[in-house]
Amino acid sequence: NAKAAGSNQWAFFKQQMTKWASERLQMEASLHDALKKEQFLLYFQPKLDLKSGHVIGCEALIRWKKDGQLISPIAFIPVAEDTGIIIPIGRWVIEQSCKVIREWQKKYSFALPIAVNVASQQFADASLVPDIKQLALRHQVAPELLEIEITETSLMNNINDAIIKLQHLKNAGFGIAVDDFGTGYSSLSYLRHLPISTVKIDRAFVNDLPEDGAIASTILMLGQQLDLDIVAEGIETKEQLEWLKQHNCAIGQGFYYSKPLPQAEFEAKYMQPLPHIDQHIINV
Ligand code: C2E
Ligand code: MG
Ligand code: MG
Ligand code: MG
Questions:
Q1: CA of 217 to the centre of ligand 1 (A)
Q2: Which of 25, 56, 216, 283 has the greatest number of C-beta atoms within 10 Å?
């Protein structure tokens, strides 16, 4: 009967909620452990100059190696944000990226700039800007080699605070990119008030190419007017690439070129001191 069915559904719902809550609690607990046990690692995805095909930098993307399995940041970054543990995790990402830059400089006598993602809650933290400066200094990394990626949504959460922090970072010489641009439902015109160097077109709009280029064209035009570098994220096909080149998009990343790679693989593929990357290297 209906009553029994309803109570069965409720029992099922309760069971699911309990399962979900306990999985989440477990994840929270093991995230604390993960830092101590050094279970995080960075993958690197190349960023290319679309015209020449040269690698001009990379994005660091975190992975969690837990019991031999790689866990995606999409699964644990939101939990880390809710519990606050994103602050030390985010700090680890920045420090590790500084170490890698330094390592590349020593090994190859040049370095590629690395872009790191900063979570909303991490960006709101008062110690972020001094931390970034201090870590770069400690590891002797030129600020120009470190780019901070912040999503449009995090910026809009507290735009006044964001402007002040970005100004500090920019004055110190760090690159600043607005990530996942176009998904935040904010007006395009506020961009002119932000001290940023780069805007990354969200992968969803690159995915619309070449059939529907309305949003990508608008962002590219805006970038030209405001003199910003525009990076296309998530390029998967030759057709998307051709469209972007035709519309003067200078920089891109995506599976079409390369997935994010473990550091050793990234180095083997892109860090050989070959002559074709000479003009893009940053000398030290
Ligand atoms: P994001 O910063 O927008 O990074 C781009 C994501 O798109 C990466 O996923 C990358 O692997 C994926 N991607 C790149 N090219 C393509 C493509 O051609 N096709 C498709 N389908 N996907 C592509 P990933 O590594 O899983 O990271 C997901 C998100 O997790 C990132 O989005 C970022 O928001 C967050 N994240 C990653 N690492 C960190 C980190 O160290 N700190 C923080 N706070 N967030 C991070
Ligand atoms: Mg990013
Ligand atoms: Mg993105
Ligand atoms: Mg994203």
A1: 23
A2: 216
- How far apart are the CA of 61 and the centre of ligand 1, in A? 6
**Between the CA of residue 107 and those of 101, 159, 278, what are the distances in Å?**
10, 40, 16
Pocket of ligand 1 (CB under 6 A): 45, 61-62, 72-74, 77, 90, 93, 117-119, 149, 179-180, 203, 233-236, 253-255, 260
Cα of 277 vs its chain's centroid, Å: 23
- Under 8 Å between Cβ of 191 and 178: yes
The rounded Å distance from CA 120 to ligand 1 centre is 15
CB atoms within 10 A of CB 158: 14
Nearest CA to 202 out of 171, 235, 244 is that of 235
The tokens 């993960």 sit on which residue? 34
Give average pLDDT by consecutive 10-residue segment, the chain, 284 residues. Answer: 75 80 82 93 98 96 95 94 94 98 93 96 96 98 97 88 95 96 74 90 96 94 92 98 97 98 96 57 49
Reported pTM? 0.91
Question: Do the Cβ atoms of 200 and 220 come closer than 8 Å?
Answer: no
